[in-house]
Amino acid sequence: AGPEVTEPELAEPHLRAVLGTAGLAVEYVRAQDNTLFRLDEDGTEIPVVDFAGGYGSVLLGHNRPEIVERATELLASGTPVHAQFSRHPYANRLAAELNRIVHRELGTGEPYFAIFANTGAEAVEAAIKHAEMDRGMRLAALREELAEHTASARAAVAAGTATVTAQALGRAGLDAAAAGGDFEALAAELERHNAEQFARPPLFLSLEGGFHGKLAASVQLTHNEGYRAPFKALAAQARFVPRERPDALKEIYAEERRTVRDVRVVDGRVEVTEREFPAFCAFLVEPIQGEGGIHVLSPEFAAEIQRFCESVDCPVVVDEIQSGMGRTGALLSSSQVGLRGDYYTLAKTLGGGIAKTSVMLVREARYRKEFEIVHSSTFAKDSFSCHIALKVLELLEADGGAAYRRAAERGEALRRMLTSVAEDFPGVVKEVRGRGLMLGMEFHDQSGSASPALRDAAAGGLFGYVLAGHLLHRHNVRTFPTASALNTLRFEPSLLLTDAEIAQLEGGLRDVCAIMRDEAGERLANG
Ligand code: PMP
């Protein structure tokens, strides 16, 4: 062997160091099915059961043979991977197949147009941009209509067929005596008021605990302060709606609704009316919050959100990036709670654990074809990822949807185990949540533990990571806390999950629960 070359560490050395404090900075050298392999000191492979599942991108398993075979075929046959601005029949086929499944699950026939992208956050950004473009076009139409009404009222006043009443001036907020029935004073005041509304930035709604990505716009819809606050100045803001509190929607409506003032001539009088202004650009919802701690949206709250959005003409963006693609037993987990989106975002497993791809779907009634001319990416809609995604859908749909049923059944088996652990450690486990293969276990706060190691981990904001380090080193199990709720461990394995793998996780969880119950942090691998 030659002399050892030590490269300077430049690819996020700080992150590696942070992971290292919890023993999580390990290298995986191979991946197959539900297993990642790392090497021990002698270079022997140690299999690690993967419950993190790429945080939801490998529902079908790591390096799933059918997908690897398809990828190999595509590359060997010289598929034109990059051919931006040409006809993409494979993208169209993928959009059609997504529509077929979505129609079946939603019981609708309305077409959903597809905008392809590369990552989850990018699909969210596309949805945000599209929603704002649509709102902008609705604003322009409204503005034009208001201008037409002003012009015809002005003409009627000039022709002497209409007069400006004190009531109209009062409604516009003018002092009737001072304005003296002057139409131009009225028109100027309406224009001033309306211009103020039109100049306001769009308002987005998102749920507390919501996670929609970390790009400049999408991170403003991600609730976690640490991710969002440093970039506040970069993009439009969201209001965060408390989960499962329908009253909150009424309060937000009362505080955020805007109106513009319109003039009409009725029975020879100029009248001023208030009209609802499209202030709300989009409401982003995860059917099951992933990074926020595995919180399932209830059908009741889903219906409230739907009603609210209909009443203010605000599109619903259902972010299925983590929950979708079969993980909970359906392509759209929102279809299981009766939530209907104007937009859907899908990513992660859409690329089969191999390609990087995502898609934003928009229903026809909201679709603006102009978007296609102003939004693109060098890499999106490429033949390689479209064909891989088609293979993913084929695998999900095979045998009458056996994969969906398997995800639901394996999820139930995993959930039974988690529930039994929770029942045996009631003082340690707070709750088991989730659906299908998207499950979480929340632990009680350990900052009052008699064990310094547990107390420090809880205080240092790394609690779930310390548990994950122990599970990795002592039990060969990989899991992670959710990004914004560190007391919750997530379990998002592939649908190849075996009973033996569930038992292996159970051994690990019972061990960490006993350590917490016994306040014995010194028993932790990195304690
Ligand atoms: N939305 C949701 C619901 C997610 O879970 C994630 C990723 N965890 C994203 C968006 C962002 O996806 P990506 O990491 O591919 O940008």
TrEMBL record:
A single MF term (Gene Ontology): transaminase activity
Names of required cofactors: pyridoxal 5'-phosphate
UniProt-listed SUPFAM superfamilies: PLP-dependent transferases
Record's keyword terms, sorted: Aminotransferase, Pyridoxal phosphate, Transferase
Keyword Methyltransferase among record annotations: no
Entry annotated with the keyword Mitochondrion: no
Family the UniProt entry places it in: Belongs to the class-III pyridoxal-phosphate-dependent aminotransferase family.
PANTHER family in UniProt: ACETYLORNITHINE AMINOTRANSFERASE, MITOCHONDRIAL, AMINOTRANSFERASE CLASS III
Name the record gives this protein: Aminotransferase class III-fold pyridoxal phosphate-dependent enzyme
Lineage: Bacteria, Bacillati, Actinomycetota, Actinomycetes, Kitasatosporales
